[in-house]
TrEMBL record:
PROSITE patterns: ABC_TRANSPORTER_1, ABC_TRANSPORTER_2. Residues 23-269 form the ABC transporter domain. One of its GO terms (cellular component) is plasma membrane. Residues 304-315 have a biased composition (Basic and acidic residues). This is ABC transporter ATP-binding protein. GO terms for molecular function: ATP binding; ATP hydrolysis activity. Pfam families: ABC_tran, BCA_ABC_TP_C. Residues 289-315 are annotated as: Disordered. Keywords: ATP-binding, Nucleotide-binding, Transport. It comes from the Bacteria. The keyword Nucleotide-binding applies. Gene3D superfamilies: P-loop containing nucleotide triphosphate hydrolases (3.40.50.300). InterPro entries: AAA+_ATPase (IPR003593), ABC_AA/LPS_Transport (IPR051120), ABC_transporter-like_ATP-bd (IPR003439), ABC_transporter-like_CS (IPR017871), BCA_ABC_TP_C (IPR032823), P-loop_NTPase (IPR027417). It comes from Arthrobacter jiangjiafuii.
Length: 315
């Protein structure tokens, strides 16, 4: 059933409190030379919603992703994921705690096969524990589990036919799918996608959109950076806008696109972005309505291979 309760806990605006935040960040700053790449006083990401992080080039979106996921270190600030402090926690551990991210330029390993890439994404590898290494039945069992989970995901992302191909042979869009599928190997709670649609051909765009919507349908939270405003309007429940390192606006997509601070932020750097036009958006809606590929609501096994009854137990 769709959750129609308000996302914000108080007045909607930059830095507003959420009814049920999964991630809370305070006073996070990062400077490069004299530039304030990120200067975020307070931001909260709502649980089990799709939040778009938008803003003109150089606004600090990717830097904020890097800081929150342990790929970069801020000058100041603290942030909690599911109530646990993450400042100083390595990227590897952040992912194992259930917060994963993908990159603007995909980081799949070209010289490994698709299935090998998937296996690398698993939360614990058989070789990681010394005593397990001395007990072959234990690590063989875990290896089988990892491979089975990877195969389920590859089938869902329609990459199963590419299983033994080198990742380098995939198209840009397929690499994005592989990176997303690999991120799901840790059965995350929060999935952060940096420009998931960039460089993806129109045939795969619909499939990617569906996968993002499926993540939410299966109980996950999504935070994504995107420049395509029609995509944002189509799938986001909430939009956070950054400019010059700060959060300058946030709210539901239809409201945010009308916000003067957002229009001003974009007019400086992004003349080509059409924030108000709904024609393209309506066309996209119509196309997706007839999208036979849509897999929202598929069977008891979700995209992440976690059974729906299992997720209900955790709720
Ligand atoms: N490694 C770095 N060294 C120096 N400056 C950097 C570095 N990374 C980011 N910056 C600067 O920090 C600011 C924020 O950059 P960032 O890439 O986070 O913006 P963005 O909103 O993700 O932009 P885009 O939409 O173009 O990806 C920019 O002024 C950028 O030049």
């Amino acid at each position: 059933m769709t959750d129609t309760r308000a996302i914000a806990a108080d007045d909607v605006g930059p830095g507003c409190r959420k009814r049920d935040p999964i991630l809370i960040a305070r006073n996070v700053t990062r400077t490069y030379g004299g530039i304030n790449a990120v200067d975020v006083k307070h931001v909260e990401i709502p649980r089990n919603k799709i939040t778009a992080l938008i803003g003109p080039n150089g606004a600090g979106k990717t830097t904020l992703f890097n800081l929150l996921t342990g790929f970069d270190t801020p000058q100041s600030g603290d942030w909690q994921f599911e109530g646990r402090d993450l400042a100083g926690v390595s990227a590897y551990k952040v992912a194992r705690m259930g917060m994963v991210r993908t990159f603007q330029l995909t980081k799949v390993m070209g010289k490994l096969t698709v299935i090998e890439n998937m296996r690398l994404g698993a939360s614990s590898q058989p070789g990681e524990s010394l005593w397990r290494a001395f007990l072959p039945p234990l690590w063989r069992g875990r290896e089988r589990e990892i491979t089975d989970q990877a195969d389920v995901l590859l089938a869902k992302f329609k990459l199963d036919t590419k299983r033994s191909d080198y990742a380098a042979s995939l198209s840009g869009g397929q690499r994005k799918l592989l990176e997303m599928a690999r991120a799901l190997m840790v059965r995350p709670k929060l999935v952060m996608l940096d420009e998931p649609m960039a460089g993806v051909n129109p045939a795969l765009t619909q499939s990617l959109l569906d996968h993002i919507k499926n993540l939410k349908a299966e109980g996950m939270t999504v935070l994504f950076v995107e420049h395509d405003m029609h995509m944002v309007r189509h799938i986001a429940d909430w939009v956070i806008v950054m400019a010059e390192g700060k959060v300058v606006a946030e709210g539901p997509p239809s409201e945010v696109m009308k916000d003067q601070a957002v229009i001003d932020a974009y007019l400086g750097a992004h003349h080509d972005v059409d924030l108000g036009d709904s024609e393209g958006f309506d066309k996209l809606e119509a196309e997706l309505e007839h999208d036979a590929e849509s897999s929202v609501g598929t069977g008891p096994d979700g995209v992440a291979g976690r059974r729906i009854d299992e997720r209900k137990d955790q709720a």
